[in-house]
Protein: L-erythro-3,5-diaminohexanoate dehydrogenase
Amino acid sequence: MPKGCKYGTHRVIEPKGVLPQPAWKIDNTMEIYDNEILIDVHTLNIDSASFTQIEQETGGDEGKIAQKMLEIVSQRGKHHNPVTGSGGMLVGTVREIGKDLQGKIDLKVGDKIATLVSLSLTPLVINRIKEIRKEIDQVDIDGQAILFESGIYAKLPDDMPETLALAVLDVAGAPAQTAKLVKPGDTVFIIGAGGKSGMLCLHEAKKRAGVTGKVIGMGHSEASCKRILELGLADVMIQGSATEPVDVLKKVEEVTDGELADITINCVNIPNTEMASILATKDKGLVYFFSMATSFTAAALGAEGIGKDVTMIIGNGYTKGHAEISLNVLRENPKLREVFEKLYA
Amino acid sequence: MPKGCKYGTHRVIEPKGVLPQPAWKIDNTMEIYDNEILIDVHTLNIDSASFTQIEQETGGDEGKIAQKMLEIVSQRGKHHNPVTGSGGMLVGTVREIGKDLQGKIDLKVGDKIATLVSLSLTPLVINRIKEIRKEIDQVDIDGQAILFESGIYAKLPDDMPETLALAVLDVAGAPAQTAKLVKPGDTVFIIGAGGKSGMLCLHEAKKRAGVTGKVIGMGHSEASCKRILELGLADVMIQGSATEPVDVLKKVEEVTDGELADITINCVNIPNTEMASILATKDKGLVYFFSMATSFTAAALGAEGIGKDVTMIIGNGYTKGHAEISLNVLRENPKLREVFEKLYA
Ligand SMILES: NC(=O)c1ccc[n+]([C@@H]2O[C@H](COP(=O)([O-])OP(=O)(O)OC[C@H]3O[C@@H](n4cnc5c(N)ncnc54)[C@H](OP(=O)(O)O)[C@@H]3O)[C@@H](O)[C@H]2O)c1
Ligand SMILES: NC(=O)c1ccc[n+]([C@@H]2O[C@H](COP(=O)([O-])OP(=O)(O)OC[C@H]3O[C@@H](n4cnc5c(N)ncnc54)[C@H](OP(=O)(O)O)[C@@H]3O)[C@@H](O)[C@H]2O)c1
Structure:
């Protein structure tokens, strides 16, 4: 096969001229171009917002979830949820490396890798769905996928189980960005703190804000609030719903003496939490939206609507060193690793 | 009437507990609470993305545009386009000031103001549509609107016509943010450079990037490219479509010796331009999305999908001093003012 575009545009079927991510449909023929990598897929880690949507649509029935997933892939050539627009990631074994890439990358046939690009742009074929682990959004399949030349990946570390590494790598962008954004002395507010990305962000926030800073977590369930306090990940926990902005504002005012947060990090997996994030942040502060359920217009117009001068950042799933930074959180924090092993491995 | 919530939650009809912007429907009864302001509306400046959508849906027929606008307001109590999620702004005369605000704000009955909060959260009643100026997305009406206590506004300046000020204030956030983000020596790439916000951003970018910087504009039509070069607003102009990312990348590479842009500012009024913005920006660079047609997931997953470490900012319509900064662009640049007068006044 010839050499394809490094970004994978050669596989876009419709609409023409766009990249594989925004494309409606891509070509999932499992014969690789000279600069592609073929992967035997073991496990899909469906993006939390996407999996939640599919569960709701199917009433949580496993047979129907499987059917919906097969339907998405057969329609689009990729697991790109048409409602949430999001994907997820996968773990698999390298089956074949295109000849233009051989010797140029640090991979060989047989290596176990996690792809760090979204499933929403990854050519995928599912032959069979073997097991659905609903609590952790993971689905074991028999299938294959293709990685483009620009696609990033991580070799799976040998000091932790595969499912654990996968859970962490799925949300690697969030703790890595937190590490870059939080400065000593900052008041940091993390919404959805009890989830996967939330807990990793708490760890980085506490490390970076230091003793002069303050880390406030917000959990939805009592269980997650309790867990976080026991882990010592947050200085203060707030329990409530991020879909109720005025209530969130009041609670954040209380625990910050009315000062509000320098940085708010949104890690929830449900829509309509933009306003709570904006209201909880001080003027000239920063809101980092990692949640894929964020609406661009709701954020832009919401901030304007209340005359709030905050910088709002779209959570880029990638930032340099994100795989290393996030896996390292678990190495630094054995208690957190224990919780992750219990919950996600 | 009693005192309402400063953010206007007392007017939210459904869903309960949210703010007026994300609300589906708000109460547009034109009797004010003690901390609200009643405005007699002269002109609506419909957000460009919203107006373009309505024009397309109605085939551009003026009667049908009017009907669609009335329908939106009667359904939602505000001019909140259900497809684009965006609003616009308005100009009117202060009719009544709630008693809690009297003497506390710099407004009196009879003052002419532009509201600087989105129409997507402003209680509005349209009694009659008087004139639709399709080329500039402005609609004269007989109607009334309400401003909440947290709502921001600008008194109309007396050194320029009302429609001109309105056109500038509508997009005030963009040049003000450009002024804050661009540093001397930066290579700045502005997509949708020929539009209202685009031209204002070009002026600020050139001023801030200085002689050591480089300002590259991208226009869609030949006319707008020519106009910008004549105005001396950009160092280089690229003509093309921002929906074709690979083509845009090639052109930006050419004019930057492969270095790409430090900052890309997206001012288009159409969807599917996220990838062009991301591809044109260098690693560690910054993408500022002012366009309301931006999709959060397309940006987040698109950047991740090609492993690009860029910071992506959601264009907050408000930033401190934005009205002053944007109106001042026209005072600083008489040639640009002439063009604005011809096009938008
Ligand atoms: N930007 C990117 O590149 C990228 C990449 C991967 C994932 N994501 C997104 O990141 C988000 C989080 O992912 P995750 O895997 O960390 O999710 P997760 O483990 O499922 O955690 C979600 C958290 O949201 C909380 N939550 C749910 N409803 C809430 C409410 N009404 N108020 C406050 N909190 C609420 C839950 O709290 P309780 O535990 O207390 O119930 C839970 O802890 C998702 O939206 C996902 O799509 C983004
Ligand atoms: N974030 C906020 O708070 C906020 C507030 C107000 C407005 N906005 C948004 O800002 C955006 C711009 O508003 P505006 O009033 O400046 O719009 P505008 O005057 O209508 O300009 C839009 C520009 O987009 C260009 N364009 C159209 N299709 C294109 C394509 N395929 N490739 C490249 N360029 C293309 C047009 O180029 P030509 O002139 O060459 O045809 C035009 O110059 C809109 O999306 C609006 O919704 C945001």
